[in-house]
Amino acid sequence: MTKTTPTALADEKIDTERRRLLAAGGAVAVATGIILYGAGAGARPKGQPASSAQRWGMLIDTNADPSDWDTAISACKREQGWGGGNNPATDPQWIRKVSIKNKSTGAQATFPVMCQHCANPPCVDVCPTGASIKRADGIVLVDKHICIGCRYCMMACPYSARSFVHEPVHNQKPHMPRGMGTVESCTMCVHRVDAGLLPACVNALNKKGSKAIIFGDLNNPDSEISRAVSAHVTRRIREDLGVEPGVHYKGI
Question: At 224, which helix (H) or strand (E)?
Protein backbone atom coordinates (compact mmCIF):
# COMPACT_ATOMS: atom_id res chain seq x y z
CA MET A 1 0.00 0.00 0.00
CA THR A 2 1.33 3.44 -0.93
CA LYS A 3 1.60 5.76 2.04
CA THR A 4 0.13 9.21 1.50
CA THR A 5 2.37 11.91 2.97
CA PRO A 6 1.27 15.42 4.04
CA THR A 7 3.32 16.81 1.16
CA ALA A 8 1.53 14.59 -1.36
CA LEU A 9 -1.83 15.66 0.02
CA ALA A 10 -0.87 19.32 -0.28
CA ASP A 11 0.33 18.82 -3.86
CA GLU A 12 -2.92 17.03 -4.73
CA LYS A 13 -4.92 19.90 -3.24
CA ILE A 14 -2.97 22.45 -5.26
CA ASP A 15 -3.46 20.40 -8.45
CA THR A 16 -7.20 20.22 -7.76
CA GLU A 17 -7.37 23.99 -7.32
CA ARG A 18 -5.42 24.52 -10.53
CA ARG A 19 -7.78 22.25 -12.46
CA ARG A 20 -10.73 24.19 -11.10
CA LEU A 21 -9.08 27.40 -12.23
CA LEU A 22 -8.48 26.01 -15.70
CA ALA A 23 -12.05 24.76 -15.89
CA ALA A 24 -13.31 28.23 -15.10
CA GLY A 25 -12.19 29.23 -18.57
CA GLY A 26 -10.80 32.58 -17.49
CA ALA A 27 -14.01 34.53 -18.05
CA VAL A 28 -13.20 38.22 -18.15
CA ALA A 29 -15.67 40.99 -17.44
CA VAL A 30 -15.06 44.71 -17.82
CA ALA A 31 -15.14 46.43 -14.43
CA THR A 32 -17.04 49.65 -13.95
CA GLY A 33 -15.34 52.79 -12.71
CA ILE A 34 -15.76 56.51 -12.35
CA ILE A 35 -12.68 58.32 -13.60
CA LEU A 36 -11.52 57.88 -17.20
CA TYR A 37 -7.93 58.57 -18.16
CA GLY A 38 -9.06 59.93 -21.53
CA ALA A 39 -7.12 61.16 -24.51
CA GLY A 40 -4.66 63.07 -22.33
CA ALA A 41 -3.21 59.76 -21.16
CA GLY A 42 -2.87 58.47 -24.71
CA ALA A 43 -5.76 56.01 -24.63
CA ARG A 44 -6.11 53.80 -27.68
CA PRO A 45 -9.52 53.33 -29.29
CA LYS A 46 -11.64 50.69 -27.60
CA GLY A 47 -11.40 47.24 -29.12
CA GLN A 48 -7.89 47.59 -30.53
CA PRO A 49 -5.21 45.15 -29.28
CA ALA A 50 -2.37 46.22 -27.02
CA SER A 51 0.31 48.03 -28.97
CA SER A 52 3.84 49.24 -28.39
CA ALA A 53 2.53 52.68 -29.36
CA GLN A 54 1.64 52.95 -25.67
CA ARG A 55 3.92 52.42 -22.69
CA TRP A 56 1.77 52.46 -19.59
CA GLY A 57 3.45 53.61 -16.42
CA MET A 58 3.05 55.29 -13.06
CA LEU A 59 4.68 58.20 -11.26
CA ILE A 60 4.60 57.88 -7.47
CA ASP A 61 5.15 60.93 -5.25
CA THR A 62 6.99 59.71 -2.16
CA ASN A 63 6.29 63.04 -0.43
CA ALA A 64 2.54 62.37 -0.43
CA ASP A 65 0.57 61.87 2.76
CA PRO A 66 1.42 58.35 4.04
CA SER A 67 -2.32 57.69 4.46
CA ASP A 68 -2.59 57.78 0.68
CA TRP A 69 -0.80 54.45 0.49
CA ASP A 70 -3.40 52.84 2.76
CA THR A 71 -6.05 54.18 0.38
CA ALA A 72 -4.21 52.69 -2.59
CA ILE A 73 -3.72 49.30 -0.96
CA SER A 74 -7.34 49.07 0.16
CA ALA A 75 -8.55 49.95 -3.34
CA CYS A 76 -6.30 47.26 -4.84
CA LYS A 77 -7.63 44.63 -2.45
CA ARG A 78 -11.25 45.51 -3.21
CA GLU A 79 -10.71 45.57 -6.96
CA GLN A 80 -8.71 42.36 -7.30
CA GLY A 81 -10.00 40.30 -4.38
CA TRP A 82 -6.72 39.51 -2.64
CA GLY A 83 -6.05 39.73 1.10
CA GLY A 84 -8.00 38.32 3.99
CA GLY A 85 -6.29 34.94 4.08
CA ASN A 86 -5.90 32.81 7.20
CA ASN A 87 -2.17 33.47 7.50
CA PRO A 88 -1.02 37.10 7.04
CA ALA A 89 2.59 35.89 6.70
CA THR A 90 1.76 34.01 3.48
CA ASP A 91 -1.17 36.09 2.24
CA PRO A 92 -0.64 37.42 -1.31
CA GLN A 93 0.40 41.07 -1.32
CA TRP A 94 0.12 42.90 -4.63
CA ILE A 95 1.19 46.28 -3.27
CA ARG A 96 3.04 46.99 -0.04
CA LYS A 97 4.41 49.97 1.86
CA VAL A 98 8.18 50.34 2.13
CA SER A 99 10.00 52.81 4.38
CA ILE A 100 13.52 54.13 3.84
CA LYS A 101 15.72 56.40 5.97
CA ASN A 102 18.76 58.51 5.14
CA LYS A 103 21.27 57.57 7.82
CA SER A 104 23.18 60.84 7.56
CA THR A 105 20.20 63.23 7.67
CA GLY A 106 17.50 61.15 9.30
CA ALA A 107 15.07 61.97 6.48
CA GLN A 108 12.48 59.26 5.93
CA ALA A 109 10.08 58.33 3.18
CA THR A 110 7.29 55.79 2.86
CA PHE A 111 6.03 54.69 -0.54
CA PRO A 112 4.33 51.76 -2.25
CA VAL A 113 6.13 49.03 -4.17
CA MET A 114 4.33 46.76 -6.58
CA CYS A 115 5.18 45.04 -9.87
CA GLN A 116 7.33 47.59 -11.68
CA HIS A 117 6.19 46.43 -15.14
CA CYS A 118 9.71 46.29 -16.51
CA ALA A 119 10.57 46.65 -20.18
CA ASN A 120 13.03 43.77 -19.70
CA PRO A 121 11.28 41.69 -17.01
CA PRO A 122 13.44 38.98 -15.40
CA CYS A 123 10.27 37.10 -14.41
CA VAL A 124 9.43 36.55 -18.06
CA ASP A 125 12.95 35.39 -18.87
CA VAL A 126 12.95 32.59 -16.27
CA CYS A 127 9.38 31.31 -16.60
CA PRO A 128 9.52 27.74 -17.98
CA THR A 129 5.92 27.66 -19.25
CA GLY A 130 5.43 31.14 -20.67
CA ALA A 131 2.94 32.02 -17.93
CA SER A 132 4.84 35.23 -17.19
CA ILE A 133 4.26 37.58 -20.10
CA LYS A 134 4.82 41.20 -21.07
CA ARG A 135 2.22 42.84 -23.28
CA ALA A 136 3.21 45.10 -26.14
CA ASP A 137 2.16 48.11 -24.05
CA GLY A 138 4.52 47.19 -21.21
CA ILE A 139 2.08 45.61 -18.74
CA VAL A 140 3.53 42.45 -17.17
CA LEU A 141 1.07 39.68 -16.28
CA VAL A 142 0.80 36.07 -15.12
CA ASP A 143 -1.37 33.65 -17.10
CA LYS A 144 -2.89 31.64 -14.25
CA HIS A 145 -4.04 28.91 -16.61
CA ILE A 146 -0.51 27.78 -17.42
CA CYS A 147 1.30 28.82 -14.23
CA ILE A 148 2.66 25.69 -12.52
CA GLY A 149 3.65 27.46 -9.32
CA CYS A 150 7.39 26.82 -9.66
CA ARG A 151 8.07 30.33 -8.26
CA TYR A 152 11.12 30.93 -10.45
CA CYS A 153 9.63 34.33 -11.29
CA MET A 154 9.41 35.21 -7.61
CA MET A 155 13.10 34.48 -7.17
CA ALA A 156 14.03 36.44 -10.29
CA CYS A 157 12.03 39.57 -9.43
CA PRO A 158 14.40 42.17 -7.90
CA TYR A 159 11.42 43.94 -6.28
CA SER A 160 9.87 40.97 -4.42
CA ALA A 161 6.66 41.99 -6.16
CA ARG A 162 5.11 38.56 -6.72
CA SER A 163 3.19 36.38 -4.29
CA PHE A 164 2.37 32.68 -4.17
CA VAL A 165 -1.19 31.66 -3.38
CA HIS A 166 -0.87 29.15 -0.53
CA GLU A 167 -4.53 28.77 0.38
CA PRO A 168 -7.82 28.13 -1.45
CA VAL A 169 -9.41 31.36 -2.67
CA HIS A 170 -13.08 32.28 -2.55
CA ASN A 171 -15.37 34.96 -3.97
CA GLN A 172 -13.08 35.62 -6.92
CA LYS A 173 -13.61 38.62 -9.17
CA PRO A 174 -14.77 37.77 -12.73
CA HIS A 175 -11.89 39.78 -14.19
CA MET A 176 -9.24 38.20 -11.96
CA PRO A 177 -9.29 34.38 -11.77
CA ARG A 178 -7.08 33.23 -8.91
CA GLY A 179 -6.05 29.77 -7.79
CA MET A 180 -4.07 28.07 -5.04
CA GLY A 181 -0.65 27.01 -6.25
CA THR A 182 -0.20 29.90 -8.69
CA VAL A 183 1.73 33.17 -8.61
CA GLU A 184 0.17 36.61 -8.86
CA SER A 185 1.11 40.29 -8.76
CA CYS A 186 -0.08 43.78 -9.66
CA THR A 187 -1.66 43.81 -13.12
CA MET A 188 -1.84 47.60 -13.30
CA CYS A 189 -5.59 46.87 -13.39
CA VAL A 190 -5.28 45.85 -17.02
CA HIS A 191 -9.01 45.12 -17.23
CA ARG A 192 -9.69 48.75 -16.32
CA VAL A 193 -6.96 50.18 -18.55
CA ASP A 194 -8.35 48.28 -21.54
CA ALA A 195 -11.76 49.80 -20.79
CA GLY A 196 -10.35 53.34 -20.69
CA LEU A 197 -10.37 53.54 -16.89
CA LEU A 198 -7.69 54.38 -14.36
CA PRO A 199 -6.16 51.62 -12.21
CA ALA A 200 -8.14 51.18 -8.99
CA CYS A 201 -5.44 52.65 -6.75
CA VAL A 202 -5.13 55.80 -8.88
CA ASN A 203 -8.90 56.12 -9.19
CA ALA A 204 -9.32 55.95 -5.39
CA LEU A 205 -6.62 58.55 -4.81
CA ASN A 206 -8.10 60.90 -7.40
CA LYS A 207 -11.50 60.65 -5.75
CA LYS A 208 -9.77 61.56 -2.50
CA GLY A 209 -8.26 64.61 -4.20
CA SER A 210 -4.72 63.21 -4.18
CA LYS A 211 -2.23 63.05 -7.06
CA ALA A 212 0.08 60.70 -5.15
CA ILE A 213 0.09 58.35 -8.17
CA ILE A 214 -0.17 59.53 -11.76
CA PHE A 215 -0.96 56.94 -14.41
CA GLY A 216 -0.66 57.26 -18.16
CA ASP A 217 1.18 56.69 -21.41
CA LEU A 218 4.91 57.35 -21.12
CA ASN A 219 5.20 57.32 -24.91
CA ASN A 220 2.83 60.24 -25.29
CA PRO A 221 4.68 63.51 -24.65
CA ASP A 222 1.37 65.29 -24.04
CA SER A 223 0.16 62.88 -21.34
CA GLU A 224 0.05 64.03 -17.74
CA ILE A 225 2.62 61.47 -16.66
CA SER A 226 5.07 62.40 -19.42
CA ARG A 227 4.80 66.09 -18.57
CA ALA A 228 5.34 65.32 -14.88
CA VAL A 229 8.34 63.08 -15.52
CA SER A 230 9.84 65.84 -17.70
CA ALA A 231 9.21 68.51 -15.07
CA HIS A 232 10.56 66.68 -12.01
CA VAL A 233 13.65 64.69 -11.16
CA THR A 234 12.46 61.11 -10.84
CA ARG A 235 14.10 57.78 -10.20
CA ARG A 236 13.30 54.16 -10.80
CA ILE A 237 14.18 51.54 -8.21
CA ARG A 238 17.39 49.63 -9.05
CA GLU A 239 17.97 51.42 -12.34
CA ASP A 240 21.40 49.80 -12.36
CA LEU A 241 19.84 46.43 -13.26
CA GLY A 242 18.78 47.63 -16.69
CA VAL A 243 15.28 46.17 -16.44
CA GLU A 244 13.70 49.57 -17.30
CA PRO A 245 10.75 49.71 -14.88
CA GLY A 246 7.58 51.49 -15.94
CA VAL A 247 7.10 52.87 -12.43
CA HIS A 248 8.84 56.16 -11.60
CA TYR A 249 9.29 57.70 -8.15
CA LYS A 250 9.54 61.37 -7.27
CA GLY A 251 11.26 62.44 -4.07
CA ILE A 252 13.75 59.62 -3.44
Answer: helix 224-231
The neighbour count for residue 194, using CB atoms within 10 Å, is: 21
Cα gap 146→109, rounded to integer Å: 38
For residue 18, the one-letter residue type is R
Q: Which is more confidently placed, 92 or 248? A: 248
Rounded to 5°, the CA angle 19-91-131 comes to 45
In the chain, the largest separation of any two C-alpha atoms, in whole Å, equals 71
Amino acid at 222: D
pLDDT band at 170 (very low <50, low <70, confident <90, very high): confident
- 134 neighbors 124 (Cβ within 8 angstroms): yes
81-109: pLDDT as tens digits: 998 777 877 889 999 999 988 888 988 88
Read off φ and ψ for residue 163, nearest 5 degrees.
-125, 150
Q: For residues 34-47, give the mean pLDDT.
A: 52
**Which domains, from first to last, does the chain contain?**
6-250 (3.30.70.20)
Instruction: Report, as an integer, the average pLDDT of 119-130.
Output: 97
What is the DSSP track for 164-212? E--S---S-BTTB---TT-EE---TTHHHHTTTB--HHHHHHHHHT--S
Pairwise CA distance, residues 204 & 199, whole Å: 9
Comparison of pLDDT for 34 and 210, the residue scoring more: 210
Residues 6+ apart with CB under 8 A from 193: 37, 56, 139, 199
Query: What's the rounded Cα separation, in Å, for the pair 28 and 43?
Result: 20
Residue 153 CA, distance from chain mean position: 14
